[in-house]
């Protein structure tokens, strides 16, 4: 989080939003060689980080900023206790999809 906070202070935009935008641009271009999107839903994206701490790392990021979720006019997903249930359910389905893919890959 420290890196993300430093990035925000320097660039005045969220590091995670920038990652989502870049990954979605690669995905929408159909560039399967560089695209790291594992799966996505309406409000979340699961992707393999460019530089991860270890193998099989997947991050799930919101596809919206805290000030502008598509249907709710702003949602803070940094704390699941305050996140609306439908967003938690959507994120859980995406997480399950990723775990099934990893299970299939690793056996």
Gyration radius, in Å: 14 Å
Average pLDDT rating = 82
Low-confidence parts lasting 5 or more residues at pLDDT below 50?
none
Oligomeric organization of the protein chains: single chain
Sheet-strand content, in percent, reads 5-15%
Biggest sheet record? 3 strands, antiparallel
Number of helices: 3
Identify the strand order in the major beta sheet. 1-2-3
Helix content, binned percent:
40-55%
Global geometry? globular
Determine the structural class based on helices, strands and strand pairing: alpha+beta
Q: End-to-end span in angstroms?
A: 32 Å
| H/E element sequence | HHEEEH
Provide a quick synopsis of the model.
This protein is α+β, with helices and mostly antiparallel strands and 107 residues long. It contains three helices and three strands; from the N terminus they run H-H-E-E-E-H.
Any overview of this molecule?
The radius of gyration is 14 Å and the shape is globular. With 107 residues, the protein is of the alpha+beta class. It has helices at residues 2-11, 15-29, 85-106, and strands at residues 37-40, 44-47, 59-62. The mean pLDDT is 82. The chain has three helices and three strands; from the N terminus they run H-H-E-E-E-H. A hairpin with a 3-residue loop joins strand 1 (37-40) and strand 2 (44-47). The longest helix is centred in the C-terminal third of the chain and has 22 residues, at 85-106.
């Amino acid at each position: 989080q420290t890196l993300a906070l430093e990035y925000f202070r320097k660039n005045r935009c969220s590091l995670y939003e920038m990652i989502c935008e870049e990954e979605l641009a690669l995905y929408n271009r159909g560039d399967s060689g560089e695209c790291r999107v594992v799966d996505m839903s309406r409000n979340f994206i699961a992707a393999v980080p460019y530089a991860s701490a270890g193998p099989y790392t997947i991050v799930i990021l919101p596809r919206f900023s805290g000030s502008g979720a598509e249907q709710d006019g702003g949602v803070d997903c940094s704390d699941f206790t305050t996140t609306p249930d439908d967003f938690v359910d959507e994120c859980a389905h995406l997480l399950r999809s990723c775990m099934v893919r990893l299970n299939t890959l690793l056996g």
